[in-house]
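Lab notebook, bench 4. Still working through the backlog of constructs that have no structural model yet. Next entry is a single chain of 453 residues. Request: give me the structure tokens for it.
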Amino acid sequence: MSKKFWFVFASILIALSMVLAACGGGAAPSGEEAEGEMATDANAPIEIWIDAAREESAAKFLDQNPEKADLISLTTTDYGQLPQKILFWNNVGAGWPDASFGVPQLVPLINDVAHSYLGDMRPYLTQEIIDGFAAGSLQNCWDGEKLYCLRNDLAHYVTWYNATKVAELGIDVPVTWEEAAATCAKVKETNPEIQCFLGQESVSWFNMLTSAKCPWQQILGPGKIRINAVHDNCYKAAKFLDQAAEDGWYMLTNMFGTEASDIVQSDNWLFMPSSSWFGDYVIRGTYYDPEDPAFQGKIGVAPAPKFEGMDHPWVFWWGGASWVLSRHSQNPELTMDFLKFMTTDEIKNQGTYPAYGPAAEEWLKERMPTLTYLQDPTAAGEVLKQESEHMWTVATQGPVDSDTLWGPIQTKINTGEITYEQALEEFQAVLVDGAGKLGYEPVTDGLDDFPSQ
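Model written out:
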């Protein structure tokens, strides 16, 4: 396929990531707001909002359930419009889709008192299914009792690397960020033409924050949010990235632009920490011709770097999506049958890494051997599986739109006006302001963490 196709695809993923990663936590409806659920009817028609990429998979559910097919309407639409549309439907008292596909960031935005849209999925799922999802992937779908979303796929960070060049230089893939700095310093001395690390600028910044466990935005519960971008962990990440930029070993750029493409296609690169889909949808097709014999077996996959002292990396995600159920659905059982099919069964046939563990096992078994550009598809699959458990999902990009607020700050950094370290206070201020506009009372100190890790 053409580079243009992959550029468009990746651009869509970027757009998704700009509104992605926290599944729950807005002010939960109660009292009068919660009385709007409709009586259920197993013969009531349902409407599902999907995107074009899921049309074929959704149609399989209709084929497998012909007796219910006439009840199901699939609407291909821009689900980014859902929050605004919900307010309109609330005013007219009708029109809500029974379920929608969308980025997890939408979840807290449509579960406040004003929208009051989400239904509880928990009664329709066995504990076995819930436990089958990757660790942390449903972390922010809960409000303590109710489950408001099911994760569709993951986009967790790993390190993609130039296996043939790494072998040629006789170096090891760095395990820690500190090792990365030391390794890249040696490479620069002997091979100054090689760019040691490459990454998408804003996303790589969020991954660095996540690596250090920076609580820049954490959902604490209904209407409660922690905004603490000035935590010591955040300063640790910022100082490290400032030093990496000064030393020149970590280039943050537009990974879909000519600068990155020229570096990669000249074979002057080593490591790219990025999402699990990046190898398939960018390295293969955008940078390299999939049919080029020199590309076969060229790419390795390793865990993303961790900071020294951590048992394993904590990683960010770039992409991924969720499904939600409407509390207004008159036929929630059929709706949930569809959502379970999409997230626990059909997802194994998709191009991105499934959030549901058993489906991921099938995905790895069937898909990985076909990826001949990988140095060792089996080993790569094991890395993808292992790191899917290491998303630090207690830190999120939403409901406050972290990406949009960070954009102007990144521009100042790019022009040399400020450093990453100096940017943290401004980032804190705009996040706190954004939380207030959404009706949250932010907690501006402390750190929430997975209690058992």
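Notes after review: The mean pLDDT is 89. The chain has two domains: 3-155+317-376, 157-316+393-443. Flag for follow-up if needed.
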